[in-house]
Specification:
Order of helices and strands of chain B: HHHHHHHHEHHEHHEHEHEHEHHEHEH
Chains: A alpha+beta (about 120), B alpha/beta (about 375), C alpha+beta (about 475)
Number of domains of chain C: 3
Shape of chain C: globular
Low-confidence stretches of chain C: none
Largest sheet of chain C: 8 strands, antiparallel
Mean pLDDT of chain B: 96
Helix content of chain B: 40-55%
Largest interface: B-C, 36 and 43 residues
Low-confidence stretches of chain B: none
Radius of gyration of chain C: 22 Å
Oligomer: heterotrimer
Strand order of the largest sheet of chain C: 15-12-14-13-17-18-16-19
Structural class of chain B: alpha/beta
CATH class of the largest domain in chain B: Alpha Beta
Shape of chain B: globular
Number of strands of chain B: 8
Chain lengths: ~120, ~375, ~475
């Protein structure tokens, strides 16, 4: 389902999301998603393309459904459960473009990200 | 494996000789019976891999002094468990290919050649009179049955108590089984690089099993089991039926309640030796333990168990060619067994049974097969 | 006439000596690009007395000897440099002879490995620890100390040779000698001073001055409170500046920095690993400890402040608690810092492994890394720099490790790459460590000739027949 990306963030995210997709129910749900999410970290952006699975590619897709700005430091704080995606959004540590136009995509992606980072 | 089927070529640029293969990872118990005894780098897996690569690349000429480092290995596969490099799952395959090349280039070891000749002439490596079919009469077995019990040469000609216990258990369980006119499965030949006669013997076995109308083969020998399940397909031989090891069948019979072990007091303390061909080679660790857990015995494990278990020293042609080292290796396992305080050492491989017994003292705990233990309690 | 093999066989037993083609081949080479050279025999003693007899026989027969402990050196250091050498494989001398809890030292034989010391201490002396390198767990403790290697206490205490309390050696002329406080007898291996410091006759000599048969090494009390961090940083100069501040503050007992490619290998990314633009350049594993939680917490606070200050220049520098590393990157992560040998598996991808490593003045550290990186990139190898602040920042270590398939093309390319790296290092007055012969020769060209002459004179004095590892270190 997942290609092995050559970059750090892409590889890390692919590992974390693969772990989540071991749950067959979630896997089947994710297979039905069609959206493109750019995870714009302070290191570099990574594009997650959801289309009968997930593909990772370094760089920002121009036609992203959602663009989520997040620093790697915030990712670490989410992992350590020092913050939550909701708190981080409210504090401006996570910024999303496209969330009002694609609220379903946003809900799906935040849910997946949140679960992936919590392990 | 590469297009010409060479696993050595596939891993020609792997192994820095880091020594991980020499010891149990993070435990630092020795893992390699050969290296531990002979000591030179050449007697560890990494040394053999370098030899295999050198011979393949032509950096080293074939000569008789290479035979000992190549053949003094039980192919127990403990190196594969400990190795962390990319080639780790292929070390035994590399060693077996190296042996096949050695046999081709400079001939094998005399004791190995002897048992090859025996297999060709008598269909067993011991040169014993081929009598397998007599078992049908002796035990009033049908000519055709759902299950074929593949006895194996060592159980049939040396450790006959294993054969008898297996037949007894199968009968008590009401299994519809028979034995066929089996030839040596080929394991001793494959392990020692003498592939020539294997396919013919294997095809004979396939035909005999088919003629018996069987749907399943059960082996009481871990070596036969590995060969039927793992080696035959690699040789292009289709067994045509499912092959199971007796431990798998025993578990199934106990789980279904077909055989019910009797209570017994006092419960003897036993320890369990994982045969390499069943454990590391085939990944069967839980079934024998599940069977033991239903018997009126108390199991105390040794300090190295399951995939880290110290080899009994008999495999890979070692028993035939390097008797002293083979028994020394077994003695180390016996020492581990004695430290558990066990009254019985139980295993499920005729080679292990024999060699562990050879490594025991007369007043030490007896070594028996799991089928014998089960037979006692049902 | 009795053959040499038989004569050695009479000392160690016939089955402990071999002139077989297999042994001659395998002992003729190692994982590096250094050219192979076959020995005539391999001999395996079990005791110091057997070593002594081997050395005496070698003097009588004028046979060169090459000591071999566990064969894990990266640098061709056990490859004979002359014809007809006899390898003395010491792996059977593998006893841990004593641990002195009060004096905090361990006495070992040359075949004892880091893995075994770790297990032995954990099981028998859990309050004490030794120090461990990023090498195979089955590296000889004595060999690494003699070769002045580094480990996971080097940031605080320096190269491993500094931990030697004393040793026993068979001299090239066959006498068994002791140096250090144990000259007054066993159970007294507490130190090297105040005496003429003759441990220096054996450390850094690559087996040219005798065969060490016993060594006492310092142990340390395990601190009850420990925390680990990963530090992601950018740029060679900024990274080394930050590491210097951390080391000078005496905050970390270990600070092992790795090119980010190594971090990526550790989390399981397959070879070959590319350095991707935008990723951090270095990942440093830091170990902080304290006698009390208060002491540890305060060290953590100071560390956080130092990293925060660095963000003025590079906002992406990031200090990551190891709990997050373990959750996010790999469950094996604690093994990387708990016993660095566990992470050595990343270096076993091919059949070849080499490095050009040095100790260097702190002022030249950043430049060495910056320029060295360009050289490695030019040759197209994975960026695998390892660096460490040493001895409270009195000096530094850097090396570029290359994992490679040992085919003809790569052997040639790796030699050229290492040559360029060494030239760069020497230009910056770095001292190469665990030097293969070609590297030592380059050092000789630039070093004070009187030093090289002194080395030569001492060697000739100790080894009049020139039997101990002739040709080694370019002598």
């Amino acid at each position: 389902m997942l290609d092995a990306p050559k970059d750090f963030i892409g590889y890390l995210m692919s590992q974390l999301i693969t772990r989540q997709l071991k749950d067959p129910k979630l896997e089947s749900r994710v297979k039905g998603w069609t959206m493109t999410v750019v995870l714009a970290t302070d290191y570099y952006p990574v594009t997650l393309t959801f289309d009968r699975g997930v593909r990772f590619s370094k760089g920002a897709a121009s036609d992203a459904t959602l663009t989520v700005e997040i620093s790697f430091g915030t990712i670490i704080r989410l992992v350590m459960e020092e913050t939550s995606t909701i708190k981080a959004v409210l504090k401006g540590e996570i910024k999303a473009k496209g969330m009002f136009r694609h609220p379903v995509a946003m809900k799906r992606f935040y849910g997946l990200l949140s679960a992936a980072l919590k392990g | 494996m590469t297009s010409d089927g060479s696993v050595i070529e596939q891993w020609l640029h792997s192994c820095v000789r880091c020594s991980n293969c020499k010891y149990v990872f993070r435990e630092y118990f020795p893992s390699c019976p050969s290296g531990e005894y002979f000591g030179f780098e050449t007697y560890y897996a990494s040394g053999r891999i370098w030899l295999a690569q050198a011979l393949y690349k032509g950096e080293l000429e074939w000569e008789p002094s290479l035979l000992d480092p190549i053949f003094a290995c039980t192919t127990c596969g403990n190196c594969e468990v400990q190795c962390l490099a990319p080639h780790r799952e292929h070390i035994v395959d590399m060693i077996e290919e190296l042996r096949a090349r050695a046999v081709q280039e400079i001939g094998g070891l005399p004791s190995h050649i002897r048992f090859r000749e025996n297999v060709v002439q008598f269909h067993n490596p011991y040169g014993a009179e081929h009598h397998n079919r007599n078992l049908v009469e002796t035990h009033s077995l049908p000519l055709q049955a759902e299950t074929v019990y593949f006895v194996g040469c060592t159980s049939n000609y040396r450790e006959t108590q294993i054969r008898d216990a297996t037949i007894s258990v199968l009968k008590k369980a009401g299994v519809d089984f028979t034995v066929v006119d089996e030839y040596c499965c080929g394991s001793p030949l494959i392990r020692t690089g003498q592939l020539g006669p294997v396919n013919e013997a294997a095809q004979h076995n396939v035909d005999a099993i088919r003629d018996a109308g069987a749907k399943r083969v059960v082996t009481s020998c871990s070596g036969c089991y590995r060969t039927l399940v793992r080696d035959y397909p690699k040789l292009g031989i289709d067994l045509g039926v499912e092959a199971v090891h007796i431990t798998q069948l025993l578990k199934e019979l106990i789980d279904k309640g077909t055989i019910v072990p009797r209570p017994n007091e006092p419960r003897p303390i036993i320890t369990w030796h994982d045969p390499c061909h069943l454990g590391r080679h085939m990944g069967i660790y839980d079934e024998p333990r599940a069977v033991i857990s239903k018997l009126p015995v108390d199991l105390v494990e040794m300090e190295t168990t399951r995939e880290n278990a110290w080899c009994c020293g008999a495999g890979g042609g070692a028993k035939a060619a390097y008797k002293d080292w083979s028994v020394e290796t077994s003695k180390k396992r016996i020492e581990q067994a004695l430290r558990t305080g066990a009254e019985l050492i139980v295993t499920v491989c005729p080679f292990c049974t024999r060699n562990l017994r050879d490594g025991s003292s007369e007043d030490g705990p007896p070594v028996i097969d799991l089928t014998e233990l089960v037979d006692r309690f049902i | 006439m009795v053959s040499l093999k038989e004569k050695f066989g009479r000392i160690v037993g016939a089955d402990r000596v071999s002139d077989g083609a297999a042994e001659r081949y395998v002992y003729s080479r190692d994982m590096t690009e250094n050219p192979p050279h076959e020995p005539q025999l391999v001999v395996m003693p079990s005791t110091a007395e057997e070593v002594q007899q081997i050395v005496r026989l070698a003097n009588e027969e004028r046979v060169p000897l090459v000591p071999f402990a566990t064969g894990q050196s990266v640098g061709g250091l056990t490859i004979p440099q002359v014809d007809d050498a006899v390898i003395v494989d010491l792996k059977r001398m593998n006893k841990i002879l004593n641990v002195d809890e009060e004096g905090m030292y361990i006495v070992v034989e040359p075949g004892v490995t880091f893995g075994h010391v770790r297990k032995y201490l954990d099981e028998n002396h859990p309050s004490l620890r030794y120090t461990y390198p990023i090498s195979s767990p089955f590296t000889s403790v004595i060999a690494n100390a003699l070769l002045q290697g580094l480990c996971d206490l080097s940031t605080r205490y320096g190269a491993m040779a500094e931990f030697i309390n004393g040793l026993e050696a068979v001299l090239p002329t066959g006498e068994i000698v002791r140096v250090g406080s144990a000259i007054l007898g066993d159970d007294n291996w507490f130190g090297r001073f105040p005496l003429p410091d003759l441990v220096g006759l054996f450390t850094g000599w690559q087996g040219m001055t005798g065969i060490v048969t016993k060594m006492a090494l310092q142990l340390w009390p395990k601190k009850p409170f420990t925390r680990h961090f990963a530090l992601f940083t950018f740029g060679e100069f900024m990274t080394t500046d930050l590491l210097k501040q951390i080391a000078r503050g005496d905050l970390a007992e270990d600070a092992g920095a790795l090119s980010f490619s190594v971090v990526k290998a550790l989390i399981g990314m397959p070879a070959p690993i590319e350095a991707i633009e935008g990723e951090p350049d270095y990942g440093t594993f830091l170990t902080l400890s304290g006698i009390t939680s208060l002491e540890l917490d305060e060290k953590v606070r100071v560390l956080e402040r130092i990293v925060d200050r660095s963000k003025a220049e590079e906002p992406k520098n990031l200090l990551i608690p190891f709990e997050a590393v373990a959750r996010l990157m790999s469950e094996e992560a604690y093994g990387w810092v708990d016993f660095p040998s566990d992470s050595f598996k990343q270096l076993t991808e091919y059949d070849g492994l080499t490095w050009m490593g040095t100790y260097i003045h702190p002022k030249n550290w950043g430049e060495a890394l910056f320029k060295g990186r360009r050289i490695v990139e030019k040759y197209g190898y994975e960026l695998m720099a390892f660096l460490k602040p040493m001895k409270g920042m009195h000096f530094c270590e850097f090396k570029f490790i290359i994992r490679f398939p040992r085919d003809d093309e790569n052997l040639k390319k790796v030699r050229q790459c290492n040559n360029e790296l060494l030239d760069l290092a020497l230009d910056l007055k770095a001292i190469p460590y665990k030097t293969p012969v070609w590297s030592a020769r380059k050092l000789h060209e630039r070093a004070d000739p009187n030093f090289i002459e002194l080395v030569r004179r001492i060697r000739n004095l100790l080894d009049p027949n020139g039997i101990m590892n002739p040709g080694r270190w370019g002598l």
